[in-house]
Design brief:
Layout (H helix, E strand, L loop, with lengths): L3 E2 L2 E2 H4 L14 E5 L7 E2 L2 E3 L4 E2 L2 E2 L5 E2 L2 E2 L7 E5 L6 E4 L16 E3 L8 E5 L1 H13 L3 E5 L2 E5 L3 E2 L4 E5 L5 E5 L7 E4 L2 E6 L2 E3 L9 E4 L6 E12 L6 E4 L1 E12 L4 E6 L9 E6 L2 E3 L4 E6 L5 E3 L2 E3 L3 E6 L5 E3 L2 E3 L3 E6 L5 E3 L2 E3 L4 E6 L5 E4 L2 E3 L7 E5 L4 E5 L8 E2 L2 E5 L6 E3 L2 E2 L10 E5 L4 E5 L8 E8 L7 E7 L3 E6 L7 E7 L3
Parallel strand pairs: 12-14, 13-15, 14-17, 15-18, 16-19, 17-20, 18-21, 19-22, 20-23, 21-23, 22-24, 23-25, 24-26, 25-27, 25-28, 26-29, 27-30, 28-31, 29-32, 30-33, 31-34, 32-35, 33-36, 34-37, 35-38, 36-39, 37-40, 38-41, 39-42, 41-43, 42-44
Antiparallel strand pairs: 1-9, 2-8, 3-4, 3-7, 3-10, 5-6, 5-9, 10-11, 44-45, 45-46, 47-52, 48-51, 49-52, 50-51
């Protein structure tokens, strides 16, 4: 019996323990029964049954499908004329007496008719490859360099992986503005890697749309090293993702949200344990990242530019942001309800509204090392905490004023003070000083501090008498700007100590 070989690039058809082995485009590979010396296999056949003694790689270094020698040879050593040979295993090798359909190894979509020429509609060819892998119980598709036109929609299947030659060269070009590019329902254990998904630049279709209908969750999804751009809808829409990873995925200029992860609370397992690592969003019309109802999930080293809302966490539980940033967004981060959100090392730059907004009774929010940098001309607020929210803030660097109607515990609130449940317990100096001294000149002096509020209580004491001493009092105040101390004596030149308290 002859077994089938090839149909994948050499880097991936070898066993991982042998390391990586690449061949040049057009290289000639001979086949041997030993890693060194040995006997060459010359009784090979191409897929048409014609006799061949060696195999020629395609222009990208990929191996064509071919049949190995007879007598059940299930692996051979390939020699491309380099310094060493590499072990290559046959595909679809039967084991024992089982009649179960084996899982397919690497399938090249070109073997199913895909052209990748930027003109031919490759939808049917790529779908045929997906279906072949699915029918075999799973498998890996290789999508070689080229622009593969997708005029329809690709219906993905569980256990099917697609690997391209890189996000700049292996392109699935969606051309129908009303179609999603890749869809899947109740799927699991899917990896998409090294691909570019490019849309028509308008319409309603999303690049990737995975939804759950009856399964417990959409689980085991991995998107890695991908570029997604120019879709009218979302870049990535994931419904009830669980145990999934999105790693180094870049989404550009989509009409919807860059990453839209939705988890309505109708299942126990769905919408949890999902990580976004090193992802980025640029110029998406609706928003950057929208996590709706997700739990126990994280974003690390992620970025967003030029979106109305950089990050929106809507009714989430135990979600964390670490080392993330938002630039040129109207609102950098919105925490809309939910519990246990933690944000560590978050930066907003060029915000044109509110840098961080806590609302809808968000509870247990912890903001650590949050910095507002160079807010835009339309910026109004650094931290806005609406009534009913509860948060703890450590080391917040702010440019714009805060709007704190909720309960916000602040340690180093930008002026060195500590505020617990709305009460300042350690006043200090600085631009937002809550205590200090001022010298009366002709019985009056103005103190500049952003800490003064309409309802603040100002305590005054004479530290050093001067001139004709009178009784100092607060004559006027401008909230968040200054207050004026005046003495009952117009010749009072005393040094007056002052302290601002905010009643609860």
């Amino acid at each position: 019996m002859r077994y089938e070989y090839g149909a994948g690039i050499a880097d991936y058809v070898v066993r991982p323990s042998d390391g990586l082995w690449a061949v040049a485009g057009g290289a000639v590979i001979t086949w041997w029964d030993a890693a060194v010396d040995g006997t060459q296999y010359t009784d090979l056949q191409d897929m048409e049954g014609a006799a061949i003694s060696e195999v020629k790689a395609d222009e990208y270094g990929g191996l064509p499908r071919f049949l190995g020698p007879p007598d059940d040879v299930t692996g051979m050593w390939g020699d491309a004329g380099g310094g060493r040979r590499v072990w290559v295993e046959a595909h679809r090798v039967a084991t024992g007496t089982s009649t179960a359909k084996p899982v397919l190894d690497w399938l090249n979509v070109k073997d199913f008719g895909a052209q990748g020429d930027g003109t031919t509609d490759d939808t049917a060819a790529v779908q045929a490859a997906v279906d072949a892998a699915s029918a075999a119980g799973g498998g890996t598709l290789y999508i070689p360099a080229g622009r593969h036109i997708i005029a329809g929609t690709l219906a993905w299947a569980s256990g099917v992986t697609a690997v391209g030659a890189g996000s700049r060269v292996s392109i699935l070009q969606s051309t129908n503005q009303n179609n999603d590019c890749i869809v899947g329902t109740d799927i699991r254990d899917v990896t998409l890697q090294g691909l570019q998904l490019s849309g028509p630049g308008r319409g309603f279709g999303s690049a990737v749309r995975f939804t759950r209908v009856s399964a417990p969750a959409t689980s085991g999804i991995t998107l890695r090293d991908m570029l997604i751009q120019s879709f009218g809808g979302d870049g990535v829409f994931g419904h009830q993702l669980a145990g999934s990873v999105l790693h180094r995925v870049r989404v550009r200029t989509c009409g919807g949200v860059g990453f839209h992860l939705q988890a309505p609370q109708d299942t126990v397992l769905g919408g949890a344990s999902t990580s976004l690592v090193g992802c980025s969003v640029e110029g998406c019309v609706t928003g950057g990242y929208w996590l709706d109802g997700m739990a126990y999930s994280s974003l690390a080293g992620c970025a967003v530019q030029q979106s109305p809302v950089g990050y929106r966490l809507d009714g989430c539980t135990g979600v964390s942001l670490t080392g993330c940033g938002a630039e040129q967004c109207t609102t950098g981060l919105t925490v809309y309800g939910g519990t246990g959100t933690t944000v560590n090392g978050f930066t907003t730059k060029g915000s044109d509204g509110t840098s961080v907004w806590l609302t809808n009774s968000a509870k247990g929010v912890v903001l650590s090392g949050v910095a507002e940098v160079a807010p835009g001309t339309g910026a109004t607020t650094c931290l806005r905490a609406d009534a009913g929210t509860i948060a703890t803030v450590l080391g917040l660097t702010a440019v714009k004023a805060h709007s704190l109607s909720g309960v916000v515990n602040r340690i180093d609130a930008g002026d060195g003070s500590t505020v617990l449940a709305g009460k300042t317990v350690i006043p200090s100096g600085g631009g937002a000083a809550r205590m200090g001294t001022a010298v009366l000149v002709a019985g009056t002096v103005t103190v500049n501090t952003t800490a003064i509020a309409t309802g603040s209580v100002v305590q005054l004491t004479i530290q050093t008498p001067g001139g004709t001493v009178g009784t100092p009092y607060v004559n006027a105040r401008v909230a968040s700007t200054s207050f004026t101390i005046k003495s009952t004596s117009s010749t009072d030149t005393s040094t007056v100590g002052w302290r601002i308290l905010d009643p609860s």
